[in-house]
Each structure stands twice: as C-alpha cells, then as structure tokens.
Amino acid sequence: xxxxxxxxPIPPLAGKRIVLGVSGSIAAFxxxxxxxxxxxxxxxxDVVMTPAATRFVQPLSFEAIxxxxxxxxxxxxxxxxxxxxxxxxxxxxLVVAPVTADCLAGLALGLGHDALLxxxxxxxxxxxxxxxxxxxxxxxxxxxxxLENLRRRGAIVIEPTSGRLASGRSGRGRMAEPSxxxxxxxxxxxxxxxxxxxxxxxxxxxxREPIDPVRFIGNHSSGKxxxxxxxxxxxxxxxxxxxxxxxxxxxPHGLEVQTVTxxxxxxxxxxxxxxxxxxxxxxxxxADFRVDQVxxxxxxxxxxxxxxxxxxxxxxxxxxxxxxxxxxxxxxETRDLLANAQQKLIKKNVDLIVANDVTLAGSGFGTDTNQVxxxxxxxxxxxxxxxKRDVADHLLDRVVRLLVARSRPS
Length: 410
Description:
Blueprint: E1 17-22, H1 28-40, E2 44-49, H2 59-66, H3 83-90, E3 93-99, H4 101-109, H5 115-122, E4 127-131, H6 135-139, H7 141-152, E5 156-157, E6 161-164, E7 170-174, H8 178-190, E8 199-204, E9 209-210, E10 216-217, H9 224-235, E11 239-244, E12 256-259, H10 263-273, E13 279-282, E14 289-291, E15 310-312, H11 316-319, E16 326-333, H12 337-347, E17 352-357, E18 369-370, E19 373-376, E20 379-382, E21 386-387, H13 388-407
Parallel strand pairs: 1-2, 1-3, 3-4, 4-5, 8-11, 8-13, 11-12, 13-16, 16-17
Antiparallel strand pairs: 6-7, 9-10, 14-15, 17-19, 18-21, 19-20
Helix pairs in contact: 1-2, 1-8, 3-5, 4-7, 9-13
C-alpha cells in the first residue's frame, strides 16, 4: 500500500476550540510556542491578549500561527458580535499562559475590565492557569489566596518551575513549558470528568520514624502509585487533597498538597482532611512501628550493640472505620496476598483493598508498573501488569461506581 494511502492519526485535540489568554509577562514569548503546539495538536486557537501583553509580543505573532484574529480590545465588535462573550461561550477550554499576579487577582475577584478577564467571566469551560512572576510575588499570601480561591472554583493550576527569572534572580516563578501545558490540557479534555465536584483525599509515599536527629526507620516506597492516583483523580475533575510523605518523584501540579513525616503526622492529617471528603484512598506506605524514645542527640558508634524498643503505630484506616466516606486501602504483601487482603478488608472496614505482591518483577517499590488485585465484599478482580497510571484509572473507575451506588436512595 502506498504510504500516502495510510490513515493518518487523529491529532489529540482535533475539533477542540481553545481560547489562549495571554497577560503581560516576559513569558508571553512562550505563549507563542504554546499556540503553535496547540495548533499542531489539532486545536482551533483563539488568542485574547491584555493590553500589557501586547507590550511584550505583537498580536501578529499569534495570528501568523493560528490564522485567526487576536482579540485585544474589550470593545472590539468582531462581525458585530460581542467577541469576548462569543469566545467564552464557544471555548472547550480557556488556558491563561502566562498569568501574572495582576491577572490572577482579576480572575479570582471576577473582574472584567479587559478582554481577557471578560472572556473568562463569560466562559463555563475548564480553566487552566500557568502562573509566571517573580518568586516573592508568587509566594505572597495574596497571590496564594487567589490561587486557592480559583482552585476551589475548579481551575487547574499548572505550577511554575524554579530557575533564572527576568530580574536575574533565581527562584520559583518560571512559566511551565508549553509541552507541559498541552499535556495538562489533553488530560482535561480527553479524559472523563466523572469525579467533578468530588473531594478525594489521597495519601502517598512512605512515613519515616526518627531514631535520633539523623536516623530514621523507613521503607522503600517511592510514592509513584499514590501520586499516579492523585494525578488521575485530578484529571477526572476531582478536588484532590494529597497527603504526602517521603517520595522520590515530583508531585503533580494542580493538587492541594500537605506534607507529613511520621505516621502520627499522617493520622492527624487524614482525620482532618476526611471531614468534608467523599473518598479516602490510602496508598501511603505507613510505618507499622516507631521508637518509643527518640534520642535527643546522635547515637554514637561505640562498638557495643544498640537496642531499639519499638512500639506499634496506630492503624489509621481502622481508627476511622466509622467515618461515612468511601475508603480504599492498600495491601503490599510478600506472601498470602489475597488472604491478607481479605482480612484487612474486614478488619479495617474499608470498601476496597488494592493488593499487590511486592516480590513480583515489575510490581515492587519504585517500579513504573504494578500488578494488583481488587478485593471487595463481592469478590476478587485480578488485573494484568500495567503502568501505575493505568492501575490508577482502573481503581478510579471502581471508585466512581462505588460513589454512584452510595448516592442512590436505598
């Protein structure tokens, strides 16, 4: 068959109409590359610029890429329509990149004094924000409060990275790369939003129990499974509260993140977080024991034996057995996998146990794949080995069904 007759793959954003908002930051030049990436992905792209943005990049740069007129004036009567309303209503998603501290404040307050803010007010589509600003501006309590308010209203924040800034200083505030933004957008538009309006608490990573100021009891958990679940839940529209211990990989953007160290820290965080949650997915590798007396100073090596007296940590899931939310536990075992998982299901009064044998190749700590079984009161479902992200999506399919079943009148 001639190569010209082969069916070409459908671009991931084919048929999607994306509004790209650009505010006044030096990072506006990266928005041109972002527009190009969106067009390559098959999207129709309409660009809306603030007046300040036009001081950094000319509208012609975007028009040459998108082949569409750029909106810069709130009173522009494109084809006698109210342009900002038409764009907001018709968009499949609104991406603001870069979003400055000033633009962020306007979005959080619901202001509409320029074309970009007015378009955002007119839109009911997913809102993705890629901040770009100086570190001190980004870390200012007002900026963080604006970000939190927007997250609570469903906005997805693609966190800035650290590096050299326009001032010459180094710090957090560089806009995420265009490829990261496109990836986040694809996750929003391509995946089902069947967890929209749900608050999901996810725990991830290992806990560490101190022995002295420099040593601790820990485990081999990388946190990859828990972080994959948190990311997948975010992509399906959930408001995700991630409680994270020790991890070896970056935490995904767009999550409400709380860091903990010990099992007691984790217990306190979980008990508080589940008060207004729909589900808890307990993927953290929790230390079962802690030292009864932590040494004040570093224990010196003298040649003599050192004896540590360990006491059991609380069973966090069992301690919240009466909590009315959906609960998912994990069972990482080295033998008698299903028997232990079924025992945990009853003992901890959870709705579902995700069981995996960490001695299997590709299923242990730190791997990118996992082979699990879902154990509930109706039986056992064995899954083949797959990526941890795919395991996360299969798990969330279960969670969605369980949540729907709970919401039905009995």
